[in-house]
Structures are given as C-alpha cells and as structure tokens.
Amino acid sequence: MGREDYNKALKSGKKDYQMRLLRGEKPTLEVLDDIMPQKGAYYEQPLGIVQIPAEQIVGTKTVGRSNSFAGNFMPILQEGSEFASKWASLSTSHVEEGIRDPIKAYEYMNKFYVEEGNKRVSVMKYFEVVSIPGNVIRIVPNRTDDKENKIYYEFMNFYQKAPINYIWFSQEGSFAKLQEAVGKEPDEVWTEEDLLDFSAVYTRFSSEYKAKGGGKLRNTPGDAFLAFITLYGYNAIEEKTTNEIKELIAKSWEEFEILGQEQEIDLKMKPNEEKKPLLSLLIPLGPSKLKIAFIYEKTPGTSAWTYAHELGRLYLEQTFPDEASTIFYENVTQENIDAQLEDAIKAGCNLIFTTTPAFVQASVKAAIANPDVRILNCSLNTSHRYIRTYYPRTHEAKFLMGAIAGAMAENSRMVYIEDYPIYGSIANINAFALGAKMINPRAQVYLEWSSKKGTDIDERIRETGASCVSGKDMVIPEEASRYFGIYHMDGENPRNLAMPLCHWGKFYERLIRTIMEGKWKYDDDSSQVKAINYWWGMSAGVIDVICSQNLPIGTKRLIELLKTTISAEAFNPFSGILYSQTGIVVDDPNRSLSPEEIMTMDWLAENVIGSIPKMEELKEQAEPVIKQQGVKNTAGTNE
C-alpha cells in the first residue's frame, strides 16, 4: 500500500515540477535560509507546539532536503531509492496508526519551513491532512514601512489575543476589523470556545469559497471571509447551515471578485450621454412605471442633509407625475434599516435610494437578495458590485465658498465647521482653504468638527475671532437659523453671504432618466467587474453656489467667472503646487490631482489650523459613518 501511495505521490510531484518549470518558477521547495532577513534584522521567538495549517507549510529550513520534493511537497526521487522506501513506510504508519510526532519548523511571515520532518509533511499533505503539529520558532523581522511587514505585525498583535494562524489578509487593518466583526473589544482575549466556534465557521466558509473558485481570485480567503461576515454579520453566519452559506457565497460572488481588483471603482464623472439604439425608440427598454423609495437617517425638519434629499424627492414627483411615484422612510437606524428596506421592496418599490453611507451594508444585502430591485447608496469611494453609489463633487462649490470667505474676512480668519472626517469631507475642507488662499494669501482656516466630543463651536468661533464662518450647507427648517452657508459675523448677528447647493432633484432626475430611456445598462461594462460610482459636479449641473445680495458685485462677478471655468472643466481646484500642513504634496505646477486622490485625501492644507480627529474623539452617532467611510487619520496638527 505504501509503495502504491508513493507512486501516486511521485506522479503528482513530477507534474507539479514540470508545471512550475513551464511558468518559470523554482520547481522545488522554497528554502528559508535563502529568504531570511540579514543577521541583526530579525529575532527568534519560540511558540512551542502549534497546529500548523498544512497548506501554509511551503518549504524547508535548509537547502539539504529541498531538492527531494516538488514545490507542492510531493516527492520527485525515483521509486527504488532509500528515500522512497522510508516515505512508503511512513505512509503505511500514517494509515495504520497515524503520525503523532510533531515536526520542527520555523514560521516566517506566516509561512512555515520544515527543519525536521519533511517526509512526514509530504505524507500528510498527500493524505490531505488539514493541520500538522509542530514545534515552531517564529522569525520576527524588524519593523519596516513595507506593506507585508505592517500586515505581519498586525497579525502578531492579533495572535496574542487569538492564536489563529490559518487566516490571512492582503490589506492593512484587516486583523483589527476581524476582531471587531466577531464582536470583540480591541484587546479582548478569545476563549477556547471562541476559537473552536470561529474555526468551524471559517472552515465551512473557506471550503465552499475555494470550491466555487476562490483560489483563482487575487484576494485571500481571509479577505473574502471578512467581507462576508461584515456584510451578513458573524453571529448570523454562525447560525447558518453549510448549504445556506454556499448559497450566500454564490449570490455574493461579484463582491469577492471586486476585492481583488486594483481599480475596483468605475467613476462616472458626468451623466451618460450615449444615444439610444434606433430599435429602443420603438421598444421601451426601461420599466413602464417606477416606484421609488427614499431611506432617510433623520427627518427633513431636523437635518439639512435629509431636507436637501427630500426636496429632491419632491422635485421628482413634480417632474415625473405619471412615470414615477415615491415614498420615504425617516428616522431609520442601524437596528431597523433591514426591515425598512424589506418593507419598501414588499411595497413594490423597484428603485431605492439610501441616503447615508451608514446604510451601505444593508443596501448590499438587500440588493443581493433582490436582484430585480435597483438600489443606490449616497456615498463616495464605496466598492460594492450589487449596488451603485452616488455623490456630488461638493469640493467644487466649497472652493468658491472659500474664495468668498477669503474676500470677505477682514482679519483673514475664518472658521470651517465639518461633521465627519469621511471620504469627500477632507477634500471639501482643503478646497475651501485653497479658495480662500487664492483670494487672500494670509487666509487662515480654523477647522472645527461638530461631531467631536466636548466641542463648543460657538465658543471656538469667539476664541479665534473669525469674521467669516462656513456652517451647515443649508437651513434646517425646524431651527429657522441663519447660521448656514458662508456667513459674516457682525457682532452677535450672522449676515449670510452665500450657500453651496446640491440640486438633488436634478441629480435624481438624471439618474432616473437613464433607467426610463434604457441607458442604465450602458454604464455597466460587462467585460469588467467593477463597482459603479456616480460622482457628478458643476459640469453636470448638479452643484452650484447661490450668492446673497450682501455680497459685493465685484466678488459676485469673480465667483461667476470661477464657476464657469470649473463647469467647463477648464480649471481644477486641486491643480498646481499643493502644500499640506506637513510639507509639499504636489511639486509639479502642471499637475492636477486625480479623482481618486481627491476622494481619498487624508491630509490638510497648510493654511488649515486643526486636525483630523480619531474615532475615539468623536461622538457615538459618528461611529457607523466613520466605520464605513472614514479616512485614514494621518494628517498633522497645526495649532
């Protein structure tokens, strides 16, 4: 029996050897000594007896035995060799009584290299053993700025709380996200029961994921698993059967494909103007009647953001009185968003707009479960395949608002009030600061966060002595306050100068016309798997600035000129040499930042006084939005 197994293993080894040669790869086992850091650039850490995932054993410690095996650890020495005889004996022992003696191995960057027990590993891999006991020494490299090194240090930190070595990620921050996704506090140690439960859930997922073809994707099974439990909830997945997990994996497959894409977001910078085919003029391609639901986190009376979207909904009802009907849900929370989406779908809605980034995950879940319903979420830089996202290029308006403030602030001091440090908001702050500096080189922008704990913004405005303030974008109906847009402080009284305006009605109208005219599918490139994000600005007519009669006529003319050049895409606010609080960002006077660089901005302009707050500095209600859309907190402070 042992000889027969050796012959089969030998064939597998020779096949793997040839395939690697054809791909230009090393055909035999990796050797740790060949890839170890230089002496002094690492230290050793004994881990004791560890259950080593068999698939993560990739090589040998020294070169001595590496040439006896193909890269898949199957033997390549001839059948009559002494090596073959010993391998066959081990094979028989494994079948009859099991191989119990632990191997000796080194772990480096979460891969394992055998020092003693190469044949035992080969035999157990042949019999598809899941894990192999081993006495392990970890090789810990010195810290560097290399991405893999950073991920490895995150893994070691996680390993202290949960000694799990069979899951790996390709992105920084993922181990901390996993800790959170399974319901653990950042430093909470896992119990034995936790570890057993997790192993069971992950094993069921990874088996079905690989069976579906996950090994061909560019992400790791860990990446896919984290996305999976973030979407559906770890506890909910724990309760599902293997068949239910299999079905959800199949339905969510395009989400996993996006994880491995370098350019996963297809930005639509302006509405699709593609002409309809002649046949579609005779045969309508869109639905005959749209029923549209709007999901609001707050109420139009208490939130300027919700009020703006509600005006957009009312505009739709006036624009399409016969073609569309609308309903809305307000005061929706994380606890009831799933139920509200389900209610909208049961009510016959075939188009749903969820108007806050906090509802992204719920939107994706609903879209996967209801593929005939179009669901769009109002967020930026969100990579999900089953929904589309939309957001205005508000930084274009903020640049003009900054120019107004620069012209009207006599003491060159102005305050900018922002809600959350999320994608897009940092670009708004910096665009405002650049606009102010263009008009007034001495302009200083004091940044205040309304969601920051213990912040008294009115007191901060008095302390800075700022004469111009950028507040909420528009009036909140129930407050009837004048503290919105750009206002000039005349003693204790605000004097409104201008306000940015997002024409949500026009935004929604143009999105809906793509459906009614049968153009919806033209935005989707069937040759690629990408998330679609509509990011329209002044060129699409959905962003504007409204100037008040309090603004001098010369300043109005200047703003109109700037607006015209931005609308014609002849000027980008983020062009030329750019400086942050910590140094130069762009040193090429002829370069403009790309859309991706603007969206993911995590630095503050040099004339901004303030910083990007960390999660723990913000109020509790900020948490869902920050988790979904928060930027990296890497900007310096200039106070």
From TrEMBL:
UniProt entry tagged with the keyword Transcription regulation: no
Keywords, sorted A to Z: Signal
CC annotations in GO: plasma membrane
Pfam family, one: Bmp
Record domain ABC transporter substrate-binding protein PnrA-like: where: 290-450
Keyword S-adenosyl-L-methionine: no
Family annotation (PANTHER family): ABC TRANSPORTER SUBSTRATE-BINDING PROTEIN
Protein name: BMP family ABC transporter substrate-binding protein
Lineage: Bacteria, Bacillati, Bacillota, Clostridia, Lachnospirales
